[in-house]
Amino acid sequence: MFKDSLPQQPARRRLLAGAGAAVAAWMTVGGRAAYAQSGYPSQPVTVIVPYAPGGQGDVFARLIGEKLSQSLKQTVVVENRPGASGAIGARMVARDDPDGYRLLLGQTGEMAVNPFAMRDLGYDPQKDFVPVALVGDSPLVLVVPAGSPYRTLPALIEAALAKPDNVTYASSGTATPGHLAAAALALGTKSSMVHVPYKGAGQAMTDLLGQHVDFFFSSAAAAMPHVSAGKLKALAVSTPERIAALPDVPAVAEGTVAGFEFSLWGGYFAPAATPSPIVQRLNQDINAALSDDSIRKRFEADGVVIRPNTAEEFAAFVRREMEKYQRLVAQTGVSVES
């Protein structure tokens, strides 16, 4: 057929025409152009943050987005799509075309916890996404309002034991790491506390500052500015040992719940079948952004540990985290309807 359509062309021209047809066919994957590496990106890139503004993922996406805009030479738009413990935003990206123009800033909850805590999730982290790059991870910090009567973690636990269901705690959504951390704290101390879920860390933080709830396991990135300003007091951290940003604040594991360990990590994901050259390009540019002095210093001040990585290393990390949270969900009994 090709030969009949170009009977007079020299062999070299026929070869070029055939190559052009092959490239055109490859560039129509998924109903929207999946541009070759040399042409990517040719339009703005959108990063979906599946929570309301104000949380760690939002901070990650906006700081790194500024650097990505420069390296990609295209606008990087950060779009918040909160709801269902991160599942709404994750579903949106999972169903999108694999062309590198819509990414997910996925975190511990929607990528490692939801598969085990939520029915009818609507996406599979292993099958529907390709991990692109891990940004870093952050300890959770148990914070209370500056005017709280609870000045130490033992005092808070004592109150929860003395009056069951009297102590309340916020979370950025049911089955999020902050919820699991508080549930594990209650389980480990044999106390009873009331969970108050919100549609994002920003809303939870606002109500905590307004003293409408007693405590919140917040990401260090979101909590540190308020702690530094004297608006919140940090009672404990979720890492096995104390952190450099809060050297005087004990770890929950020190004397309250042995083995207590939680962190909130975030990273970029693309829809499954996104071409490898695009994934590698994004991984390279994200890691370059993380090496920038201004971003590195900001993250370190917030207690965020930056972890340069390949896409393959990030994929292995996500698998390990899923195994960990499968056990934790079973132990705490946390679940959420989608």
From TrEMBL:
A Pfam family assignment: TctC
InterPro entries to which the protein is assigned, alphabetical: BUG (IPR005064), Bug_dom1 (IPR042100), TAT_signal (IPR006311)
CDD domains: PBP2_Bug27
Similarity-based family: Belongs to the UPF0065 (bug) family.
PANTHER family: BLR1237 PROTEIN, TRICARBOXYLATE-BINDING PROTEIN
Name of protein: ABC transporter substrate-binding protein
Taxonomic lineage of the native organism: Bacteria, Pseudomonadati, Pseudomonadota, Betaproteobacteria, Burkholderiales
